[in-house]
Amino acid sequence: MAAMFDFKVFPVGVALALVTGCGSAPVAPADSDGTTTTTTATTTTTGTSPTSTVGETTSSTTGSTSESVDSSTSDGSYIITPDLGPLPPCDCAEDELCIYEIGIDSWFKICVTPPAGCAPQQKCSAACMQACVHPTPPAADCDSDPAEALACDYGSSSACSPWGQNCPEGQKCVPIVDQMFPHWELECVPLADPAPAVGEPCLGPASSPTGKDDCAAGALCWPIGGDGDKKCVANCGGTPDDPECGPDQVCATLHEGTITACLSICDPLVQDCPMGQVCSPGLDGFACLPDTSGADGDLSDACSEDDRCDAGFHCLPSQQQSNCVHSSCCTPFCDVNAPDCPFGSACVSPYSLDDTEPPPDWDHVGVCVKP
């Protein structure tokens, strides 16, 4: 996890790790311009994920474990159950909020700046839930013990939230990808000076709208066409259940919810986005996203995000498709009232696949799925 902000970390457990072999030493991820950046911070980490082999002893400042595990599966892989010792309590300042941060194979307790209206001593509140990447109403069994961290729903939390915008003064919340895993998270980074406002031209990464840019807090630098021009767009307001954007805009999310953006509304059956963009589902309608499909993106091509398919297609898992040989493939949009799907597929609203109701006026838009 790249550290570009000031918070404390308290490891509280590690999930079971399935080990199938040893890889090469990790390499620091490169920035969008190809350079490699090394950052430092006052983050305190007292334990790490295990990379031990059979018979090896691992240790950390919170405990040690001697592993001697035989292969338990037919392919030679085995399960390591690490022991990090006693679980430390939260040790945050009075004006900090303690939450769980979920990594690839570990949980941490971290201290973050609380969102507006959040009293850390009353962390089981709707205002404090805004610190989560996916804010939800507080769970009925939320633990109000100050020694315990706030547990966010969906197993996702980070150093800041695009909804709560809970970074210290002079910083902003941005999505960052760890290219070694990959894993998406959010970090607080210093604001540019001057920082362009929403609607103004901006400078940001060359590819997808992620990482550091020069936009003001609450905004990120977004491609506006296929010519490379970019402008600052607002992060979504409200909550995932009730997003707030400007007129003729839709709240779009990408990369495990770490990106939220108020983007132009579009019709996926018409694909009326500017050149270099595709019309894909957002939280409350369909929005124009950058087309990053490259040479792929056609019918049954492999994909990983909504913006990895060509215009007129949507990325879905293979189990929902009739002719997909990858983990996920591009499938066509269709009109529920006049379906025309390949491979004998049915036309179903993409929102119903997530057990949600289609946004008003969009219940006629579907995608081709396995009947």
Automatic annotation (TrEMBL):
- Alphabetically ordered keywords of this record: Signal
| Signal peptide (from-to) | 1-30
Q: Does the keyword Signal apply?
A: yes
Q: Where is this region: Disordered?
A: 29-77
Q: What protein does this entry describe? A: Uncharacterized protein
Classification from the root reads: Bacteria, Pseudomonadati, Myxococcota, Polyangia, Nannocystales
